[in-house]
Amino acid sequence: MSRSAPALRPYLPEDAPLLAAIFVASITELTSDDYSEAQQEAWAMTADDEDAFGRRLAGQLTLIASLLGSPVGFASLKGTDHIDMLYVHPGAAGQGVGAALCDALEKIAGARGAKALTVDASDTALDFFRKRGYAAERRNSVTINDEWLANTTMKKTLDGAAAPGGHA
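Structure tokens predicted for GNAT family N-acetyltransferase:
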């Protein structure tokens, strides 16, 4: 079966409502093995204020992935070296959307001089990032809308980050 690669484009302000919907669907449909319903609801509520959600995306380098012309995922780079958000619609999960977004952010971060990239990965996303070469650094507990959620800060050294001779 041949699959077309997702098309990537920059975030536009009018994308906020659709990306908020992808964010909520991703949380509510893909994280139930790792988080309670109350935790999922608290997490998903962070997109209820679409204006604030849009400002967060606009304040970072945010890419949108589309399949067959429809946006199905997005990712954002905070500063030069931190993946802040990476969400894929459940209907597009497993089709290379997350990988394409992550590849692009890794290339952009490297081009901007980052030696490594970090992410605070949800328990659901741990294996995704581990398979991409990210290593767990520490566990975190964060409070979102009065619910405690765990995540893991992970780090990946980017290609070309080591100087000749093997010294970083």
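Residues 16 and 54 are 5 Å apart (CA to CA).
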